[in-house]
Amino acid sequence: MYKIAVIAGGDSGEYEISLKTADNIFNQLDRTIFDPYLILIKGSNWCYIGSNGKQYHIDKNDFSLEIEGIKIKFDAVFIAIHGTPGENGKLQSYFDMIKMPYTGSGSFSSALTFNKFYCNLAVKQLGIPVSPSLHFYDNEEVNYNQIEDVCGYPCFVKSCNSGSSVGVVKVRCKEEIKAAFDEAFKYDNQLVVEKMVYGREMTCGVTSVYGEIKMLAVTEVVANNEFYDYDAKYTDAGHKLLTPANITQESQEILKKYSEMIFQKLDCKGVVRVDFILEEKTNIPYFLEINTIPGMTALSIIPEQVKFNDFDIKQFYTKLIEEVLNKK
């Protein structure tokens, strides 16, 4: 039986969502194949909490665990941390160094896709439409006229390295831009300003099992809030998911083609979610972002797409883990 560490938590505003994702994964793992341990990470505190409530700390030299004198070595890690350090390549680099197999994309792919601005540059090079944008560091002088010329209003101000719409502000006029910058810089030292594209939000799940890329589905996200923000993503009343999306077959095929291209060319692994805005007048899909560790809570999109494909979620997680075990 394989010992699997399901790691959760992290150091971002997505901490609580990570716990829900990890709990969902942990409960779904096949106990006839895997012996899972839920490992919590917060800063330098990496620990397993036993049934007695006692904390047992991870030995970071080899990512092992000692419980009452018994040393536990893991066969693989299921990364369920959204944001830093689980989605931006930091943990992946650590696991690469100690030669520990882990689910999901590698260190370079994770770092690249997590930064919204540099990911946009890479995707644009593939010939995929990306909304016009500007990039700023927190110590940089801001040319507000340039923002108006390139992005116009309304636009979105986004922290470059954050997820779940944390640090994202819709800006309606020039007078609101300073407050939006202040909010975004709470979460990162760089941000991106993007021109708003009017349309419907689509998201495509993509997975790779045993080297074969498979599209899960195209889902339309209908947010009850002004946009698909943090509250909309993680509350029952905040959004509605339509799987498959009610769009033309041509639009479906273009979204799947773009998603597969992004997955392949940016060297993604495991399961990811690629988000787009389908422009309302032209039906042109504009790339929004890639989620290399997408949410797996009961309200999340990927489990819904897995169900749509008539996949058993337990078997789906089994395949994701078995793929990395086979590469050990």
Protein model, in words:
This protein has 328 residues and is an alpha+beta fold. It has three domains: 103 residues, Rossmann fold; 144 residues, D-amino Acid Aminotransferase, Chain A, domain 1 (2-Layer Sandwich), CATH 3.30.470; 63 residues, Dna Ligase, domain 1, CATH 3.30.1490.20. Helix 2 packs antiparallel against helix 3. The protein is globular and about 65 Å long.
Can you identify the CATH superfamily of the largest domain? ATP-grasp fold, B domain
Helix-strand sequence:
EHEEEEEEHHHEHEEHEEEHEHEEHH
CATH architecture of the largest domain: 2-Layer Sandwich
What's the story with the biggest beta sheet?
7 strands, mixed
The tally of domains stands at 3
Per DSSP E runs of 2 or more residues, the count of β-strands stands at 16
* Percent in strands: 25-35%
Spatial arrangement of strands, main beta sheet? 6-5-4-3-2-1-7
Distance between the termini: 15 Å
Low-confidence stretches: none
CA-based shape: globular
Structural class: alpha+beta
Assembly classification? single chain
The CATH topology label of the largest domain is: D-amino Acid Aminotransferase, Chain A, domain 1
Radius of gyration (CA) equals: 20 Å
Please bin the fraction of helical residues. 25-40%
CATH class of the largest domain: Alpha Beta
Task: Round the mean pLDDT to the nearest integer and report it.
Answer: 91
Task: Provide a count of the helices.
Answer: 10
